[in-house]
Amino acid sequence: MRKGGMARRRDDRLKDQAMRNQELNRRTFVGGATAATAALVLSACDAGKTPPTDSGPGKEGSAPPPAPKSQATGLSREAVLALADGKVEYYMRLCHNCAQTSYLALHETFGVGDRSLTKALTPLPGIAERGETCGAVIGSLLAIGFVYGRERLDDWAGWRGCLVPARAFCERFETELGSTRCGDIVEKVFGQRYNLADPVDLGKFQEAGATAKCSRVVKTAVRLAADIILDKTQAGGSSRPESGRRASALGAAPSCEVATPSSFGMSTSGRSSFSL
Q1: What is the CA radius of gyration of the chain?
Q2: What angle do CA 100, 213, 82 make, to 5 degrees?
Q3: pLDDT value at 51 more than 80
Q4: Which residues have CB under 8 Å from 74's CB, separation 6+?
Q5: How far is 125 from 181, CA to CA, in rounded Å?
Q6: Smallest Cα–Cα separation from 157: which of 236, 251, 228, 226?
Q7: What pLDDT, in 10s, does the model give residues 52-110?
Q8: HSE of 249, CA atoms in CB hemisphere, 13 A
Q9: What is the DSSP string of the chain?
Q10: How would residue 241 be classed by pLDDT, with cut points 50, 70 and 90?
Q11: Beta-ladder partners of 181
């Protein structure tokens, strides 16, 4: 009897322990399910909210800054060219980069383009200083493209039309400096070529007055480009890219009146005669 009573008590303890374990497991499950449900509800509530953004100093939003207003408005042609000259002198002393200087001078003078493009022009003088296309040509053509370029990628007439002032610029630049290539221009202006990838040659180039002499080249390019831009803006056009070019209802490209180089500052009036 004593052994049977002990066995029953042991069984009762085991049953009690099993019941307590079941209750604990049930509470754990319910608590976990409740937490998971709450998380789902909260995430659903937050789904429609716009996450906060840090747009930098001032928290002014992510919209790009507006293009600067044209500083050429109301000025005579010669006053505009003098304004551009001053910008070339300032930026060449500041950055010593012909591509960035030429673009910035035209960008600020006429209010065309986006200032952020200046960063992309950093390696372009001479095409990575390899003696290839002069950076002043590149920066000036970029500004001309903003004025005369097409807005739609399928605008064939807009493309061909933009090449007229662009080629006029290049031809006039070649007339003034003999070439659009950096190496050829350096030889003409400095009397010799330099390998700018060689630190020794680069030092000699700088000692020979690189900033002052290249500034004259940049002024020539900017004046020629400004002349071409003024031919449009002072004729009643806009310094912004044209938005009126549209294909006809049948998809045919509009006719494009072809201008001659003389229409874009190619006269022999001597507006920008380069001198050493």
Answers
A1: 35
A2: 65
A3: no
A4: none
A5: 10
A6: 251
A7: 444 344 444 455 556 678 998 999 999 999 999 999 999 999 999 999 999 999 999 99
A8: 0
A9: -HHHHHHHHHHHHHHHHHHHHHHHHHHHHHHHHHHHHHHHHHHHHHHTSPPP---STT---SSPPPPPPPS-TT--HHHHHHHHHHHHHHHHHHH--HHHHHHHHHHHHHT-S-TTHHHHTTTTTHHHHSS-B-HHHHHHHHHHHHHH--SSTT-HHHHHHHHHHHHHHHHHHHHHHS-SBHHHHHHHHHSS---TTSHHHHHHHHHTTHHHHHHHHHHHHHHHHHHHHHHHHTTT--SSPP------TT-PPPP-PPPPGGGGT-SSS-TT----
A10: very low
A11: 133
Non-local (6+) Cβ contacts of 257 within 8 A are: 161
Q: For residue 230, is pLDDT > 70?
A: yes
Alpha-carbon span 232 to 145, nearest angstrom: 13
Name residue 133's beta-bridge partners: 181
Q: Which amino acid is at 29?
A: F
What φ, ψ does residue 193 adopt, rounded to 5°?
Answer: -95, 155
Compute the distance between CA of residue 92 and CA of residue 220 in angstroms, rounded to an integer: 13
Q: How confident is the model at residue 10 (pLDDT cuts 50, 70, 90)?
A: low
Domain residues of the chain, as ranges?
77-243+252-264
- CA–CA gap between residue 37 and residue 49 (Å, rounded): 20
Q: For residue 91, which amino acid is it?
A: Y
Whether the model clears a pTM of 0.85, i.e. scores above it, the answer is: no
